[in-house]
Structure formats: structure tokens, C-alpha cells
Amino acid sequence: MLQMTIDKNRVKMSFSRQAHVYEENAPLQKEVAKRLISAIRLTSHISRLTALDIGIGTGFASKEFSKSFPNAGVFGCDISYGMLKEADKTGAILAEADAERLPYKSDTFDLAFSSLAFQWTSLRDSINEAFRVLRPHGRIYFSTFGEKTLRELADSYNSALGLLNTGKAAGTMKFESSQRISAIMEATGFKGIEIETDFINDRYSTPEALLRSLKAIGAGNPSRDFHPSRNILNETFRVYRERYGNEDGVSATFEVVYVRGVKG
To answer: What is the β-pairing status of strands 73-78 and 93-96?
Structure first.
């Protein structure tokens, strides 16, 4: 995350509120989780693999993982108690925890994976913690949103601030670039780093519908400083429709970054 103070309580509350309806409102998140898990390749001779799902959410990725690796021991953690209540159905051993401060001993897991959770954290701290809890030669697979995610919304919001001459105001959510992610992985000590990027362009009937869809899964802006006025939002929506809309609605870009690496 760039240039933003993440309000962890805001994140916990938002996701807990929507946990019971998360999966029915998260087709993109399910698609990403399936692709992430399908990419996991393990050649280890270990008979009893231990895996950690960081930011397990409702447990969708863990369920997909268990289908492919039924003999693995799966652990999961999440900052949101509401999400953990849903994930309890997966059979994973669960812990309520922040990805930046994992409650596990060093050199514990053979594998760590995380699907679209690290963008709600300090990426550097989360990657460092994943590295710490992995055993030597352990692998990490994760997905996160890249810097072009919701670029239309960011552009419209920044333009609205300028047009209304509001002065300094908190910006929209910002995401890390692939280059920055690679640099963090290398600095942490991961080897064999591979990064792939996928662009998903979704359409919504209106900009308001886009924000409602994000709110439906708890994915609001996590900054404690982000409280735009109704006037700013209305101008943002007007600019959004003008620049990125047509008779079929408005477009929204999601850049998904898939990352893998090995603990050296």
C-alpha cells in the first residue's frame, strides 16, 4: 500500500459486516483464488505438507487448495472475526491475526498462499512475515491488486477535487506496482521470483453501482482520513460517467498481480 495510513479497525469491521454475504458478491475474488491455487506446483517429498492461508477470508481459496492437496494440513488466519466464522466450515486450523504480525513460530510452514488480502496491509511487512514463518525452501504464492486497479475511479476523483478546488484531501486507495512488489520480494530474501499480471475489465451500470459492489464485500477505502463529501462524490460520479461511460454503463479496471517465490 502506498502513501496511506490503513485503519485496521475499519478493515476488520467492514469485512466482518459483509462476511455472511461475501461469496455471493465476489465473483472476481473467486476467479482470482481459483487461478492462484491452480498455479501451485509442489515437488516436495514431504508426506505431510503444512500450508498457511494468509487472509483466509471465507475460506474459498483454502477449499480450492484442499481439493488439489487433500493430505495437506491447512492453517488460516484473518484479521476479521466475521470472516473466520465463515472460514470455520473449511476445516482449517484458524487464528485471528494480522498478516503483518503472524502468531506462528519461524520456519513452520512448507507453503504460504494469500489471495487478494495483502493490499489491505503493509505489503513489505506481510511479505517479511510470510518469509519468517516459511521453512527453508518453502514457497509462497499470492495475488494482490496492482497499481492500475480502479484507475478510472482514481482519475475521476482527482479530477473532481481539482474542478471543485477543494484543496488538499485524502486520495483514493493506491496499490503497489509489479516492479515494487518484485523489489520487496528480493529484499526480503525470496528466490526464483515469478510475477504475472492479468487485467480484468468489468462493467457496471453506474459509478454508484461500482461502489456498492465494493461495499458489498467490505472493500471500502481503508484510510482513516478518507471521508469525501457528498458534493465531491457527486462530481466524481459525473466525471466518471463522462469519461468512462456509455449506453452500456461504466468500465472499471482491476489489475491482478500473481506472485510466487521460494525462501532461500
So the answer is: parallel
